Structures are given as structure tokens and as C-alpha cells.
Amino acid sequence: MAANEAREFGKYELVSKLAAGGMAITYRARMKGAAGVTKPVVIKQILPHFADEPDFVEMFVSEARVAAGLTHGNIAQVFDFGEIDGQYFLAMEFVHGQTLSKLLRRAQKTGLPGLPMPLALFVATQICDGLDYAHRHIGEDGRPMGLVHRDVSPDNVLISYEGQVKVIDFGIAKATSVVEARTSPGTLKGKYPYFSTEQARGEQDLDARSDIFAVGVVLYEMLCGRRPYEGELAAVLPRILDGEYPRPSTLNPAITPELEAVMGTAMALDRAQRYPTAQAFSEALREQLYSGWPRFSPAMLSQLLGHLFAEELAAEGRKVDVTPAFLEQLAAWQAQPISEPMGAQARPPGSASGRTSTASGVRTVQSRPGSDSGRLSSNTGSRPGLKPSTNGAARPASNAGARTISSASGRRVTSSAGVRVPSISTMAAPPLDGQEPSTAVSQPATAAQGADDERHDTPVEVPALTQPKLVPDYLRPVREAKEREEQERAERRQRLVMLISVPLFGIALLLAILHYFFAGNEAAVVPMGTQWISSIPAGASVKLNGRDVPGVTPLVVPNVPLDQANTLVVTLPGYRPWTKRFTLTTESGPPMRADLERLEPEPSAPKAEPTATVPAPDPAGPQQAAAADPQAGTPAQPGTEAAPVDLAKYNQVDYPTRVFVLRPQYNAFPVEKYATASIELNAGASYSISTTGSALLGQGRASASNTLAWFAEGENLSVDDSFGLIGPTPRTFKGVRKLHVFLLDDDTADNAGAVRVNLRQSKWVPPRLLTFDPNRNALVLEPQHQLALRGLNPDAIYLLTVRDDFAELRSGGTGRTRRVLCAESSQKSGRRNHRLLETGKRYQLTGADTLRCTFPDSRVEDNAGALEVDIVDVTAMSRRERAAALRGASR
């Protein structure tokens, strides 16, 4: 895009290109509104190779939706996101300023070794405040969302010219990692120098403490002028895992032991030893900031940006004022060098600690790292609010010999770029001996002070200006020599690491294999206990977690895992199986007894005489003959057949009840038996599937739905991955051989509409279409294939708690499920709604008179286990009390 060429992009107008990265291109843009109203924004267009990945699109839409809900002064607001002409984009708040990375580079070019200490501490606190808000963000369901940025770095921190600090690109790193994990499995990508130790290990369960580590790295870079871990990936990762980096105080002697301890806590290898929250880290940094600079003003950050980027602001027609006090403080900061890691380099002549100068009649003191002069002086003779003269190491030990002149706070000074900068309320102390400012700023400031000496009587401390022109003459060659030496050492270390990394990797792999075979079994030992089980009648067989237990009841069940959910199944021919879910917490659990229920009751008719062994034709038909006593020599007489087994209690529950139980033995339905809408798929391909249109299950708009239930068949699918709900938001399916879609209904006579299921494999393969017809594909389940909870009050509000348990739809670890498909319905409103209930969670139910639940399955004969659901009427509770109940601990 040409510099002055703008082009349309939906309701936006792209003005100029700001940056291009590995994931997106960023534009400065205008959002056009009614009556010609425009708003400056930033448009981030996702690159096509990411947009073609269904996994990325799904994650991008999900994370962008979350980011749009973040409203905090230290987070750049996301106004809009979506797709225009096949191009996915984010519309973000336009922050008139610079990235922290660009600020650091510009500062070093102007002679600043890093960001001045009070400004670095302030920026870090602002980053922490924004992250803490996101980490604690509550979703619409009232539960914490567990957001993690994952990519905190100077590139993702914006600083406005007004001094505001904002974090950008929340959630984008997580979306990008989805594609990178597929295209380059087993590799680490991203800004690896800012990785936490768990990120360097490739772990995915990151939490807020990973962001805290990254902020610690950013603070290290701001204070020390370099990152703690420099070099190529192969050289950096081992040092991150070992925590091997130069101590901050060896690079910047101004860093106190207290601040170094704060940084060390944030960058601890074990995340359990870091600050638990970003707020705790922020409070520790604020304590360091305001204990050393009690009258610190954020306006200093604005002035620093205005001075460093004066040319850019002048090109925009903006004026920036710089105060003499700020220029003096800037000169002091520029004269403060950053040490080498070992701190053994020679000092330039004349800069020894404690040297005094009397050339201008002023005594100045050079402080030593770790001495008392590194803290804020409490001397009553000092001027209140005096700023430290360097990054924090050198402060006046005494003002007894200082020459006092009048303050120049009322005047303005113009920078070399012709841009003026506004003054701030407090004046910083001048540089000390051995840290003289450059002549470009020291000479005008001195002249101005002399001019005002006779008109004002406000005393300030003035440093000695002995031989100011010698400072840049010897500091620059020394600094350049140190940089070249450090660069050469880093290159040698990198070459050495590359040479030995391959054989070391092979040795580590061999050791890991040996450890797996010889020590892996011992390390993976799970504590076991025993459980006594008896039954009435005795002699029953027992299964624990799907495996047979030797012997019959009564017996002791050995090898029961402790602190885990276990399933006991007791079976005896002629009796209904007895199932018990339990968690053993001690080595010997309390005794259990299984009261088995007969499948058929004892015959009520007397036995026939032995001579009547050949029955006459039974006019009542075969059903009565099939109910004859199996132990008798004759069939039962008409009217004396056994009563049918009552399974209604397993398939229907009437409210009020405190709990209802979902058993896959009695509440699962075989999918192939019903007329679902189905399609054959390639199990080796990946599909992005979504829905369009809507179906009416009954009369009225309340019954309209664009969400469908689905069941997938595949060789390696776990039960939890074999059924669920799908809607307009694309969802990725892998390893699916056949896909079924359906809805649950109680009557299909008044259904209407249609839902189209779009199946997209890739841009080179034409998309496929599956149509759901509610007249043919809405399922009216037979009673034995579901559980119906009836008698609910549509005007009441119920709290459902699914206990932390699991059911088994097939044997093996992949056969366990912790979810069940349910449908709410109301005859009064015609409302139909489908939802998934998951174990360990709580749900609010209202507006329904019936709740139907079932387990979609391909084979119901091998099912076991049960899910228990508590139900409580919470209508009388206030909204706040109900929200608190929903957030309560799971059972």
C-alpha cells in the first residue's frame, strides 16, 4: 500500500501499513460511521495460510470473542473481529505511541543503557495490572475464564505519548500455537527469550504465573539493557531450564538486593515459588518504586517518549515541550553505564568511588552498589522530592557542600528537533561526579540557571561540571569494546553449544529410554487399598473397573486405587447387576453389601401334577406360555403368568426428587436404530463443520434451533469425543468415519424448517453438505433408551449439580464418559433446548417442565456405571445467591 493510498475494507478504510509479522499484517485505519463520523483504529489482518486452517479459525474466533470482552486501561481494546471477503481480522484500539521494544532501541541509540529505573518499574506495574485483570476475568456464566496471554514481550506492549501502558494481542499466541503444533510438531516457536520454564519444556497447561515470568524478563531487559537469555534457540533453552543468567545487579549496580529478590521471585524456575498473581508482583514493584522515588510522576514517561521521538511527532505537526529538569535528569541517565556480567572491567579515569571535585566549588559523591547511598536519603537538609540522579544507585549522601542557585522550573527549552516538551511538577536531581551529562544539554541548562540566579531564591543541588567534554571521549570506546568482546564470547558459546547439542541430545534420549524401562514402573506406582464386599444372596462375581476379581462374594477386593473414582459391578445369574461408584481414601475401606434384585419373581401359581406334561394349545397366545415357571413341569395356567419386570423407575422420575441417576445400561440409545441424518467421511482427514439455517421442533419461535446433536463413529475416538453439540461456529473433527446429526423430540408432527451441516475439508476439496430434516431426523426415543424427569415447574429455577463421576459406554479407558446429552422441553411455551451436562459442574435450569437425558451409543450391551445429578429448587434465592451457588465447589 502506498504511503497516501487508502483502500476500503468493509466498514473500515485502511490508511497505512504499520507492520508485518509472521501471523498478521497491521494497518492504521479509520472506522466509518453515520454522518461522516470516523474513528481511528488498528486493523490486524490474519495471513492467508493461517486463515486456511480450521483449527486456527476456531481458536481465533473463540479467543477474539474473549478479548473483545476485556475492558481495562492497560489492555488495548478489541472493538470488532470477524471475516470480510474471506479475510479474518481484528479491529483494535489505536494507541498513539510506540512499542516498548522500539522505545528500548531508541533509548540505547541516544546513550541510555536501558530504561531508567523508576520508569522501568512503572511500566512493569502497568503491565501487571492489565494482566491481572485478564487473569481474573469472569465469563458470562460467572466462572473464572483462566485467561493467559502466553506472549508477553516488549513487542506486545504499547506506550502512548501520554505515558499510558497497554498490553496487546491477548489470545493470539494461543490461536497461533494450534497451527504451529500441527505444522511443526515437537518444535517451539515464538519469542523464546521470554519463555517461562514450563513453556520451554513445551507444556500446554500454562497459567497466570507463566505471564508473570515473562514480565520479569521484560523488566530485566528494561533495567539491564539486555535480555537475561541471549542467543539462538539451541543455546537459550538449556539456560532457561537451568535458570542460568547474569545477576541483574552485576549488569546494573543500581539494582538493590531488595529489587533483585523481587525479580528473582518473578523468574523462579518452579512456578509454585513465583508470585501467585500479577497483582502481587505489581504491589512488590510499587513498593520498590515509591520507596525510592516517593514523588514519582508518570509524566516522566511521557516526556521521555516526547524527547526520543521528537522528529516523528514534529512530522505529524505535534509540539512537545521538554523541561530543563528533565534534560538534566536525562543527561544523568545517559552517563550511567551498564556493567559487564562479572563487573570486573576497569573504570575510566577520574570515576573512582568517593572522589570529590572542587573545580566549581561543589562537592559530589559517587555511591557504591549496595551502600546506604543507594536508598532514598532521609537527611533533613535534602530538598523534599528530589529525584535520584541516576538509575537509582547514586544519590547525594549530603548537601552540606552543595552550591544553591535559583530554580529554572518556569522556563522551557526547545530540543534539537525544534519540538517543545511540557514541564512536570517535580525536578530531578542533576548527575553526580563521574556521571556528567553531555555538553549538548549541560551547557544550555547551566546558562539558564545562571540567568535566573538573581531573580529566584529556590535552592537546588547542582553537580560539578568538571571537564564535561571528556565524558563521551572515553565512555564510547570503552562501551564499544565491551560490546564487541561480549558479542565474540556469545558467538563462541553458540558455536560450542551447537557442536555438542546433537550428541548430548542422543545421550539424553538413551538415558530417558533406559529410565523408562528400568525405573518407570517404580515411579508410576499408584497407592492401592482393599475393599470388603458381600452380597445377598452370596456367591456373586465381582468386577473392579472392568476387570474380573478372583472368587465370589463375600470376598476382599485387592488392588483398589486410592483417591480415584472406582466402579464395582456385582453379578449373579438370575439377578440384576449391582453397580457402585466409590472413592477409596484409606488402605481399607468400610464394608459394602450388595442387595441383589431378582430379574423374575417366584411363581405365584401352584405346580402342576407330573402327569400333565403335555399342555393343550393355549388360546392366550405365546406371551403367557413364555412367562411360565422355568422350574415347573408344566406351563403356567392362564391368568397366572409372572408380572413384568418394572423398569420404569430407571427410565422415568417424577419431581419432586432430590437426586436422579443416569445409567447407561438403561438410558442409552443405539444410534443405528434411529433415523438420524448421517454421512460417511474419510477418517484420515480433518473437517471443519458448522451449521446454517434453523429447525422448528413444535410451534412458536421458542422451538427454533440452529444447534444439532451429533454422534461420531471412528476407530480411535474416545467416548467423550464421540458425541456433543454443534452450531454456526466451526468445529474441527478428526478421525471420524461416519457422522450422525439429530435432535431429541417428543412429537415430530408439527416440526418444520431445516438445518444444513457444512463440512469443509480444505480449500482444494469441494465442501460437502448434510441436511437435517426435523420431520425425519428428530428422534422420539423409546422409554427404555432415555431417562425422563417430569413434573418440573416452568416458572421455577432449579440448580443441577452433576457429581464428579463417570459412566462407561464400552470397556477400557477410552470408554468412560463424563457427559450426558439432555433436552429441555415445555408444553406451555413450546420451548426446546439441548445441552450437555458434564460431571463436576453445576447448571441452572428454568422454563422447562420435562428434562430428557440419554447417552448416544453404538452398542448398549456393554454399558456400566452411572452419573448422579442433584436437583434443588432455588427460585427463592436472590440472583446473587444463585450466582454464588453456581460457582460453588463441585461434588
Uncertain ranges: 183-187, 340-474, 604-643
Order of strands across the biggest sheet? Answer: 1-2-3-4-6-5
Name of the CATH architecture of the largest domain = Orthogonal Bundle
Count up the helices. 22
According to CATH, the fold-level topology of the largest domain is: Transferase(Phosphotransferase), domain 1
Radius of gyration: 37 Å
What's the count of strands? 43
**Biggest sheet statistics:** 6 strands, antiparallel
Brief description of this entry?
This protein is α+β, with helices and mostly antiparallel strands. It folds into 6 domains: 7-93, 2-Layer Sandwich (Phosphorylase Kinase, domain 1), CATH 3.30.200.20; 99-171 and 195-292, Transferase(Phosphotransferase) domain 1 (Transferase(Phosphotransferase), domain 1); 297-341 and 362-468, no CATH class; 534-598, Immunoglobulin-like, CATH 2.60.40; 653-662 and 782-891, Sandwich (Jelly Rolls), CATH 2.60.120; 675-780, no CATH class. It has 22 helices and 43 strands.
Describe this structure in words.
This is Serine/threonine protein kinase. GO terms for molecular function: ATP binding; protein serine/threonine kinase activity. The chain crosses the membrane at residues 496-518. With 891 residues, this protein is α+β, with helices and mostly antiparallel strands. The protein has 6 domains: 7-93, Phosphorylase Kinase, domain 1 (2-Layer Sandwich); 99-171 and 195-292, Transferase(Phosphotransferase), domain 1 (Orthogonal Bundle); 297-341 and 362-468, no CATH class; 534-598, Immunoglobulin-like, CATH 2.60.40; 653-662 and 782-891, Jelly Rolls (Sandwich), CATH 2.60.120; 675-780, no CATH class. The protein contains 22 helices and 43 strands. Strand 25 (686-696) and strand 26 form a beta hairpin. Residues 183-187, 340-474 and 604-643 have low confidence and may be disordered.
